[in-house]
Design goal:
single chain, mainly alpha, about 0% strand
Length: about 90
Amino acid sequence: MSLSLTEIQRHRAELVERARAERVEVRVVLDGQSNLFWLADRGVEMVKFLAARKGLLLVAALAFAVMQPRRALRWAVRAWGLFRLFRRISRAFA
């Protein structure tokens, strides 16, 4: 079943127009989520900042542990549980 050149060009024009309309729809959706993307970018920047300054994180954790030892212990137990869960999940998908 051979299509003529005009039919191929017409079909191509329809596909190009559909692609343009879909790009417009995607842009509208993404523009509505710009605050979410901004928040995610800020979170990534904060993690990078803290990863580069591990000493600052250590000092903050020690100050928290000295000022509120019971709460620090509860957080440490939760963190250890999350760490173990993360390791178990990462092993399952590795």
